[in-house]
């Protein structure tokens, strides 16, 4: 074996050379940095030290992406070190030079870089698949797309093939443009369906930007717990888009026709998705500033961690107003349609609830109108229910369909339109004005004259809830306040105990903004 080649994990890590520090080592000085520039022997393999033990391959790769193509990576987590191989020495030299001026960080921890003694990095692990693996199937042409194909073996290039898994929420071309614009300048996008999945071809302005997008976005969710991005390099070298419409877009040529029977659409030409600014989460953390691509767009820099896309919410004018809400992250072993009817019924008239047969931690809740749906979303998004933080967002559907008789999901869908348990008897009830977020204090009403404080507290204790405080209303013992330890306890208690029977009366339970 060539002594200048490091293979797999058979060789131990290098120690930082005191005379070859990049100025960012533990005991570096300005003279050390100058000495490195004069005496350090350039290599396209970079040695990275002081990395956190839970550092991912992707986070190490992101150190090199702004300077050129990364061809290999080896992470030695037990040694808090890694090796990064660039495509050429010029890119590696630019990296060392930049990081001698501005120290990079991974997960908030300063890391140190220098030229490695090794001239080449040959790993026996699968890390290299992160960088170079391409799609093995041919890219499709369609939806007005005419493409010149250059078979580059699926290696790094400017065109990415994107598959959206678990697409519960709609993903538009505009949303994809905004997501991928975080990593560089998006030139063209074509969307299509294949094998029952929504897919896209996305061309960026350079292969380093495409690599940044693959490394930083692959496996991330656009919306919380759904719409997962699966990204590979396409075998196509460029896209030639014929039409600008909802399925394909050439951002370098806005004058293209929309195509026969298709209305031109260009919310992006008007400054991006309305209301969506800042919804993608924190930007990639750069090196004291940010390393920019050729177009000035911040590339995926060296951050504390790869940011999630969860929390990206549907812009209000990106879909028609809908009375149907999508609820995710439910505890599928506990939740029932009745539970969701009770909880969402605090904020409006629930007509139907459907727990998804293929993904039972998700459900659709149909309210009487879009305003009630928005009211429920405002108050219930991100609350904790049965030990899990749920997420509520607008659905792409306008109604919840009842299953046909005999369907396996029949028990998971329920129509509550004629239920006698609705809180709001009239569509314009003044009670809508009294809605507020869940609190740890619950309001009890319709209490029978015979009920005592002990009777009421006992009902909560029987269901496993600890009661912190209780009091009747001074002038009306038909109502009382009961305080539980946490808001989550109060939410769960309301779900389980609303409308419970006591001495012939149905006790109504709701959230109170009062304190005991």
Automatic annotation (TrEMBL):
One of its GO terms (cellular component) is nucleus. Residues 19-30 have a biased composition (Polar residues). SMART domains: RRM. Residues 1-37 are annotated as: Disordered. Keywords: Phosphoprotein, Repeat, RNA-binding. One of its GO terms (biological process) is mRNA processing. GO terms for molecular function: RNA binding. It holds the Pfam family RRM_5. The keyword RNA-binding applies. This is Polypyrimidine tract-binding protein 2. Residues 44-128, 160-236, 323-397, 440-514 form the RRM domain.
């Amino acid at each position: 074996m060539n002594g200048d080649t490091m293979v797999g994990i058979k060789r131990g890590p290098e120690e930082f050379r005191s005379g070859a520090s990049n100025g960012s080592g533990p005991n570096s000085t300005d003279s050390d940095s100058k000495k490195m520039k004069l005496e350090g022997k350039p290599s396209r393999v970079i040695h990275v030290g002081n990395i956190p033990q839970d550092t991912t391959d992707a986070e190490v790769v992101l150190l090199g992406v702004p300077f050129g193509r990364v061809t290999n990576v080896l992470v030695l987590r037990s040694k808090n070190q890694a090796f990064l191989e660039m495509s050429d020495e010029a890119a590696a030299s630019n990296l060392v030079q930049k990081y001698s001026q501005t120290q990079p960080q991974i997960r908030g921890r300063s890391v140190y870089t220098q030229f490695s003694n090794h001239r080449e990095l040959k790993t026996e692990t699968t890390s290299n698949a992160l960088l170079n693996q391409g799609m093995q199937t041919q890219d499709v042409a369609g939806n007005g797309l005419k493409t010149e194909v250059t078979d580059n073996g699926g290696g790094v290039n400017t065109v990415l093939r994107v598959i959206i898994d678990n697409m519960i929420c709609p993903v538009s071309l505009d949303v994809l443009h905004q997501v991928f614009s975080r990593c560089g300048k998006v030139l063209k996008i074509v969307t299509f369906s294949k094998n029952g999945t929504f897919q896209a071809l996305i061309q960026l302005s350079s292969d380093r930007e495409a690599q940044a997008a693959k490394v930083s976005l692959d496996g991330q969710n656009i919306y919380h717990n759904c719409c997962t991005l699966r990204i590979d390099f396409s075998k196509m070298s460029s896209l030639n888009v014929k039409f600008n419409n909802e399925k394909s877009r050439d951002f370098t040529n806005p004058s293209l026709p929309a195509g026969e029977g298709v209305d031109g659409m260009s919310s992006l030409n008007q400054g991006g998705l309305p209301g969506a600014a800042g919804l993608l989460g924190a930007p990639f953390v750069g090196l004291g500033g940010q390393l920019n691509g050729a177009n000035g767009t911040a590339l995926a820099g060296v951050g504390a961690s790869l940011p999630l896309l969860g929390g990206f919410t549907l812009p209000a004018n990106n879909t028609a107003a809908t009375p149907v809400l999508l609820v995710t992250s439910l505890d599928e072993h506990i939740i029932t349609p009745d539970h969701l009817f009770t909880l969402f019924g605090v904020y409006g008239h629930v007509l139907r609830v459907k727990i998804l047969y293929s993904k039972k931690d998700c459900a659709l809740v149909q309210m009487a109108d879009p305003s009630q749906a928005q009211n429920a979303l405002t108050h219930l998004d991100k609350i904790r229910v049965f030990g899990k933080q749920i997420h509520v967002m607008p659905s792409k559907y306008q109604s919840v369909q009842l299953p046909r008789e005999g369907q396996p999901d029949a028990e998971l869908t329920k129509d509550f339109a004629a239920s006698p348990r609705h809180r709001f008897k009239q569509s314009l009830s003044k009670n809508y004005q009294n809605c507020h977020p869940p609190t740890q204090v619950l309001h009890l009403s319709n209490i029978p004259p015979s009920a005592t404080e002990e009777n009421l507290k006992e009902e909560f204790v029987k269901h496993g809830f600890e009661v912190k405080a209780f009091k009747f209303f001074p002038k009306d013992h038909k109502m009382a306040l009961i305080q539980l330890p946490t808001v989550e306890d109060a939410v769960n208690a309301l779900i389980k105990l609303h409308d419970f029977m006591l001495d012939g009366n149905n006790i109504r339970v709701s959230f109170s903004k009062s304190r005991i």
